[in-house]
Amino acid sequence: MRILVVDDHPMFRRGLIRIITDRYAEESVVFSEAGCGEDAIEMSNLHSFDLVVLDLSMPGIGGLATLETLRQRFPHLPMRV
Known about the structure:
With 81 residues, the chain is an alpha/beta fold.
């Protein structure tokens, strides 16, 4: 499973990744991180993800605008906000 974690706080991203890793230790999970909406959109254009975990409150392109863009480009991609 490939998961993209998008949040402007690096410590939060790492903590969330740790929690998911501990929970799914027996499964193969690959994480990518983005610190802003622009990076999330760019990464999604380059890589395929099974899940995007997205912060709504970020500088630059906010979480809702990022969500809308990702939903338009990848309508079957599961996202949790």
